[in-house]
Structure formats: structure tokens, C-alpha cells
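Sequence, please.
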């Protein structure tokens, strides 16, 4: 089983590179990399699966956890 590090966006974020809105407040994301303290690499869980860097201050860690069974591709959400 794999546990995802899920966070919720607490504010909107516009990418300076693309000029487009990358995060909407309330978006669910999986944090992939926190090695840069100010900007974290995330993957959208709630919208499309896009990957990009966002300010760590835009995110709040979820209390719920997501367990993924890789073998069966079954996703279980618990709160």
C-alpha cells in the first residue's frame, strides 16, 4: 500500500511561467517533492493530474489520508 501526502490549496496561485491559474482554493494535491523549502512540486488530485511547483504557503496538510493499492489500482479515502 502507498500513502499519498495530500494537501489542500488554501488560496489561488497563478504560474508566472505560463500566466495561467494553477491552483484554485480547495484543490486537492499530492506533494511529490519538498526539497525546495519555498516551492513544492505537486500533482493535482482533484483536477486533471497536472504537475508543477507552488508556494508551500498555499497548501494545508489534510488530516485525511489516501491509501492506494498499486496492484489492484483501487483507491480508498478515509477521514
Amino acid at each position: 500500500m502507498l500513502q499519498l501526502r495530500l494537501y489542500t490549496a488554501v488560496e489561488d496561485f497563478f504560474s508566472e511561467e505560463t500566466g495561467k491559474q494553477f491552483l484554485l482554493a480547495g484543490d486537492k494535491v499530492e506533494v511529490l517533492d519538498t526539497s525546495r523549502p519555498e516551492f513544492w512540486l505537486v500533482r493535482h488530485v482533484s483536477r486533471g493530474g497536472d504537475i508543477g511547483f507552488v508556494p508551500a504557503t498555499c497548501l494545508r496538510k489534510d488530516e485525511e489520508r489516501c491509501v492506494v493499492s498499486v496492484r489492484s489500482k483501487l483507491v480508498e479515502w478515509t477521514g
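The longest strand covers residues 28-33.
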